[in-house]
Please model this.
Amino acid sequence: MPEKNLKIDRLCRISSPYAHSAFTGLIENGETFLCCYRQALTHVSNDGRIEVTSVTGDGQVTNRQRLSLPGYDLRDPKLSRDDNGRLWLIAFARPVTQATQGHRFQMVSWFSGSGKSWSSPRFFGEQHWWLWRIVWQNNKALGLAYHGGPQQLTLFTGHPGKNMQRHPIPAMSLARDKLGYPNESDMHIGSDGVITALVRRDADSFTAQLGTSKPPYNRWYWRDLKTYIGGPAMVMLTEGYALVAGRQWTGKKLVTQIWLLDLAKASLVPCLTLPSGGDNSYPGLVIQDDTLFISYYSGHTDDETRVYFARVSGVNKLRDIIKQGKV
Model:
């Protein structure tokens, strides 16, 4: 069974000492990985900065970069790489000082060739729309953004170094779909342009949704995953299956969980619960052969919320189970 195959081989704290390090993103970078996260006094404080850490597969930190924007709280950074190999870091910039009052709540981006130094920041996107993460296809960035006011989720396309435009037809909305407060998301885009999206919700049933849409993305098909997933992350495992990670409520506490997702059936099978508790989750996922590398944050061991980097084996066993039809 899938529940018995993934195993944690190594688990390390990788964030520098700080009161609250959280909300991670992870990407391969040559022979190492880059992990980004927010550092601040608390989960909701106004002083958020970004730390980008270079880490080996064994969890050894080799470099750190810190990015801040005076007058803004930087939240939920995410990493991606464009078709030319350039790294992009995006975050939500929330104006928090008298000097920035009246400025827009919008997205900000930086780029880098190596991940060791970053460009000047550039604002992009629309007021109050929170673009959670982006994927690239044919030199174009695509991502789902949410707006809490109308409880709406919409596809944005374009370029984070220039601008991104909102699709005229929402991907999900309370008014049309009767699905309340869609927000954080992850998505995969196939070679045929079909988008598969995983979306958190924080209203009515609170259950995550699995969606698909074909170009030109005027219509979306949503299926209920029957469980809450906070800070969802998704990485494709085979053509019909993905690994999903995020925050789950066990009935007693919140933990960071990994599931196997059957895309055809829209069903989840629990695979592994990471050491976690308290304020936690918001993982990043990378698969290399038989190994799953995971970044996430948790406050289960002491008074500081820290970022962890886990190396998990057993991915090929899951692929074998899928081939054998034993899921």
